Amino acid sequence: MITITGQDLTLEQVNQVVYGKAKVALSAESSQKMNRSRELVEEMVEQGQVVYGITTGFGKFSDVYIQKADVEELQINLIRSHACGVGEPLPEQVSRAMLLLRANALAKGFSGIREEVVQLLLDLINHQVHPVIPSQGSLGASGDLAPLAHMALVLVGEGEVLYQGKQMATEQALEQVGLKPVILKAKEGLALINGTQAMTAVGVINYLQAETLAYQADQIASLTLEGLQGIIDAFDEDVHVARGYKEQVAVAERIRTYLKDSQLITKQGELRVQDAYSLRCIPQVHGASWQVLGYVKEKLEIEINAATDNPLIFTDEGKVISGGNFHGQPIAFAMDFLGIGLAELANISERRVERLVNPQLNDLPPFLSPQPGLQSGAMIMQYCAAALVSENKTLAHPASVDSIPSSANQEDHVSMGTIAARHGYQIIQNARNVLAIELICALQAVEFRGIERMASFTQQAYNNARSIVPSITKDREFAKDIERVASYLESCGHLASID
After folding, report:
1. Which runs of consecutive H residues, i.e. helices, occur in 228-328?
2. What are the entry keywords (predicted)?
């Protein structure tokens, strides 16, 4: 059971909830904070105070006063009108993460929402009822309005959800699990949709997948080094300490550990004096991507515990302040940066694939073919990898440098952070496929060199991977191999264990 406070949620806990299906509860302290801020909202409504989003319209309509009798209608109108996302639904794990992150933000007690509304968010998580949320339509400022509105529709019994693998009307799913929708009161609709939880949820999923993939990139590169009889001297600790980047030092150390008892790697001067950059510079390039991951992790750990509502209610001071914490610029930059870092892992992987299959660059059979000429072998797998890295270069163009004014220029600068996060997600999927292709080719290459001469770690990785994809003995539909290996990478974590 994960207890949320709005203060100390971790990425590991998000992982447990999203992938491990851990249940979630609200802390007693958060309940007290939310109740106090709710009392202040109700006082403002009762007194007829002019407060943005409570007794006024939204965006350009912020100067329109709303009568006390209409505040509930204002909130449901807000949710319905803002639920105008388009495109394919976000992955189910993103929807689940959105529920958790929005509940955690509201648990901070700055939003004036009733405890029962936040509890319903947690009930949806605990019953595995996940809103169907279109992936497109957010500008990433004023919050992720459209995606969060689709999430909020479920709380009032509207929209659609995924439950037990089926898409259905929310009303039907709530009835099956014994939950009842809520009627939104003053400010509650705004509190639900004014935040960065769509881009941040995608960002968290991106980070969790990217971290696993970065470890796998180091491991797969080790098999490639054996397949190409790479020179281990380039991974000497002194070389990397001399540069000073701890991430680079760590990658080199992992490679040395993976290959510590290999008979396939060489020393400088034995076969050649130095390797091409795609082999020799693995620590420098992979290490730089690890630096990106460190930056992204830091920003996500802040954002998943951030108050991103507007206005914010400070009960101790009796203040209600309209600000801009909903602006997604920090996450927009982080997601653009993540996309660039993962695109480079794919770029250098594709170059290693080329070295594995190109007979002008190695002494292996051309294209790793069992019968060169009659059998094409891995020739077109390299084409596929090249296409994926080219696509990534387009996706890695930063979304955060763009802005289009909205709401009649009241909201005149936006982050496009959700677009950056979505692009990052696609880059990660492409990068995984590229690394799957490298793994398939590396497995074939080490067979030619002699499996018995592999390092203990890489031989274990070889055996595990061979249970997923067989050796290339003749041409076949390699798309199925790539798909199986990519699925394996997504689910397996490390390719082998270190003794």
Report:
1. 237-243, 246-258, 277-280, 282-303
2. Cytoplasm, Histidine metabolism, Lyase
Tell me how crowded residue 89 is: count the other CB atoms within 10 A of its CB: 18
Which residues are known catalytic residues? 52
248 and 169 in a common domain: no
> Residue for token digits 């030092």?
249
Do residue 231 and residue 152 come from a single domain?
Answer: no
Residue 198 · residue 332 · CB < 8 Å:
no
Element (H, E) at 3: strand 2-4
Top mean-pLDDT range of 46-50, 75-79, 385-389: 385-389
Which of the listed residues 157, 178, 195 is the one where a domain comes to its end?
195
* Residues near 442 by beta carbon (within 8 Å), at least 6 away in sequence: 220, 223, 224, 226, 227, 356
DSSP summary character for residue 62: G
Structure-token pair, residue 161: 């959800």
CA 355 centroid distance within chain: 30
Tokens of 270: 């034995």
pTM: 0.95
| Residue 136 exposure: Cα atoms within 13 Å on the Cβ side | 4
Is residue 204 within 8 A of residue 194, CB to CB? The reply is: no
175 with 231, same domain: the answer is: no
Retrieve residue 121's tokens.
Answer: 């968010």
